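Notebook B, p. 112. Complex prediction, attempt 2.
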Amino acid sequence: MFFSTQVYRSQEVVLKKRLFVKGNEAIAMGALEAGCRFYFGYPITPQNDIPEYMAREMPKIGGTFIQAESEVAAINMVLGAGAAGGRVMTSSSGPGISLKAEGMSFMAGSEVPAVIVNIQRPGPGLGGIDVSQGDYFQAVKGAGHGGYHLIVLAPHSVQELYDLTMLAFDLADCYRIPALILGDAMLGQMKEALLPHAYQRPADLAAKDWAVTGKRGRTKGNTIKSLYLGDGELEAHNWHLHAKYDLLKAREIRCETAGLEDAELILTAFGGAARIVKTAVAMARKQGLRVGLIRPITLFPFPAGVYREATGRTPKVLCVELNNGQMVEDVRLSSDPRADVRFYGRPGGTGSLPNPEEIFEQICKHYKD
Amino acid sequence: MADKIQTVFQRPSSLKEVPTHYCAGCHHGTVHRLVAEAIDLLDVQQRTIGIGSVGCSVLLYEYFDIDVVEAPHGRAPAVGTGVKRVHPDSVVFTYQGDGDLAAIGTAEIIHAANRGELITVIFLNNTTYGMTGGQMAPTTLPGQVTTTSPYGRSLSVEGHPIRMAELLAMLGGTGFSARVAVDTPRHVMEAGRTILKAFEMQVKKQGFAFVEVLGACPTNWGMTPIAANARVGGEMMDFFPLGVYKDITAGG
């Protein structure tokens, strides 16, 4: 197979029965398998299968499902449950994520772990309900105020929706940071084979001794807060958060690459766009075109080093996105200064999804000049 | 005679031994004490979690010797919901002001009450935004001058003050809703009993409990503490009558 298998799964995987599953449901299944017992959400297309699955399954396993009065309330319930030490999740789509941005900033500031899912739809505004990657900036640059990062994972298959949701819970807990799954309407709404596997809790995952539980014999009360008014306190806190982001960059980058050794042109894409690009790259290879691929799986931390190294050998890059050009900015920042980074993309909307032939044409065009 | 000396008044163990940052004549300190006394009387300090809000009481965790989560502006009932669902055996209370609870947090308080969340909500109504410098609140009285209603609150322009205790009493999920004041010793005693009742309802898993406390903000009202105190018992109480508006545990 031209494309390598994923690089983030633990080695000893206990496989279960193969299933034919919708992407949104795979997220919910992965969450429950990873021990998520608290879900708070609000209906929005195209992610409604997630709250519906949770509403059906949570009561059976003693979990909590609340359909909140708003996206704002939902993310703040997540903040509370996360602060209390629970494994908690919410899901939404772009317009809802905008409303959650306040809570996400507070959670980043007060270091509350949780998993947040964005099944993207096209915007701006009400936009539409089709496939889009218009929320890359929103996800990666911090949707809310104050300057912060979330861990951002970009699955590109139903299997990855399942696997990366599990990973997201572990990363969130390990680093005390919210983790965001950035999917899209294509991934959420399509059905594909899924090989579920049993969750294995990382042995080195620490107990949440920082969580609010009531003092219960502790001498000092635990406080979850993001307000720092004393001289120099907030600066120290922000450097602390910054060091965490640096640690993530050093330890948690995940990326799929293929054909970089002999590539004349590197294609790069994430999530749903990467599916289309992979097909187009395979078509190009079949025609004898030496085309490589970089598919970031973590959008934050961004695999900057992979781009720097690869573009040192192969300066020509074509970034393909289902928007008007967002990730391409990070690709340019990460690439060798002499690299020639080009872009092809289409903003989402009904009838605006490029097919592999369209991308293959672009490959041929950019390969030559 | 020394053996006859008894302690009849002391700091509740749920309060830390620190001075507060509150202004002279502000009632937050009194209400903090009443909340702490209720926690002590029910012997639940070890399992109580407070949810702070945005306003003058944001530094709740500096004064209460308990676990605390700081909520975004208005969101304390939603944050409290999340905490309580993870630790159903804990005692969760929110402590909110009128800008926080009755304006930006209207949706969260109404729906937490309507879900019948087993939490206790303490609401300090002082008819203004205290921390930001005395702007108009949803509870600002008709004609009241604030920094953002400099010609006096006009009902035709700025609308009517909201009576939250009455409003929440109308919801099916609300177990208890009352309004008290802390302007006189008698009212403080009554407020203490009411706050205790609101915590007791949670401990006994009887329902969502809400206590609105009328308090003074002398600094932003431009009054002396004595004049501000008198205003609480005067025009404030005229518009916001004291009383129990709902109690599902009351016999009858």
